[in-house]
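Input:
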Amino acid sequence: MRQTRAIEVGTGLFVVLGLAALFFMVTEITAERVGVQRHGYLLSARFDQIGGLKVGAPVSIAGVNIGRVTDISFDDSDYRAVVQMRIDEQYSRIPDDSDAGIFTQGLLGNQYIGIAAGLSDTFFVDQDRIELTHSALVLEKLIGKFMLSMAGRGNGSGEAEEGAE
Amino acid sequence: MNGMIGDIVGSARDSLATFGRMMMFLGRLLAATPAAVLRPRLVVHQIYNAGALSLLIIMTCGLFVGMVLALLGYDLLSRVASEDILGAGAALALTKQLGPVLTALLFAGRAGSALASELGLMRATDQLAAMEMMAVDPLRRVALPRFLGGVLAMPLLTAIFIAIAIFGVQLVGVQQVKIDPGSFWSQMRSAVELADIYEGLIKGTVFGIACSLIAVYEGYNAAPTAEGIGRATTRTVVVSSVATLILNFILTAFML
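Output:
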């Protein structure tokens, strides 16, 4: 009887460990948010172009991670992307005239939101909106512009090209 | 020359016949599965044998696989100055490929061989025949709980292996070679999706079915001699390992 009991305890322990490992995998190594929300406050921002920004992308100020993107949606009234982000509680003194831009980590890394602090004396609070935004740089557009300017320079008719644009 | 071709054809036919018998055995096991619900304690005992007793080897191996993956990945990635994606790369490799495959190989070596030799010895000492004499179906009483125990234990073992291996990656990557923990975890989180974890678990389950079936089949049908038990054990480990690697290729091709 005691042996049976030891086996049952061992099996229970094994199953609990296995489920704990599963829980760890789902919550810690994916961007899924399960259960309790982290503390913090929500900000939103509207962008003309978000490039490859994804939910879960970091939000940083001066290169320090202060939160992450929680939701991305499209507003068909002004054809812009609406990005929701949750900022950690401890970073509650961000001036409310700060601007947000979408940048790329490294040459081919993931995209993230970088906030540049403004000069205002009042700070963002929950549900505020960041008014000043810079769109993501789209590599193809950059290359296109570059090619166009190169072609223009080659023909000696750069002025005409610029005028056309 | 003619004889050689005949040999090859003959051995191919033998393997096909073995495969067919194994599938029929699986059919009989599945048909008997409802009976196991009536005796859950037998299955629990086998989950303990296949799972809980394999924990230590799975955890140790997971830790070291994770650590060596971190060292290798760091060495390679630091040459192109992108150490930050170490977490993402290691986590993807572990959840999708290394976790299930290595767990299945260890499972075949630890639990599969134990199953096969146990059943083989029961066969050799006529315990299975004695059960039949007492009108107890040894397939239901002995083979089925062992099969189900292995099948239920494998996905959990896979999850534990992956979790511990990621802890190992973190141990070397963040604690030793000092990759920034923030970017380590955030890169990992943005790269790994829930579908990748499902893929790992599906593979773990399929490998569990394959390895348990092979072990139970080989043991149950072992030649009733000392040599037969040894051969059944060896065949279990060899066939399980090969089957795992082949199945892994097929599953990867389907799910990629």
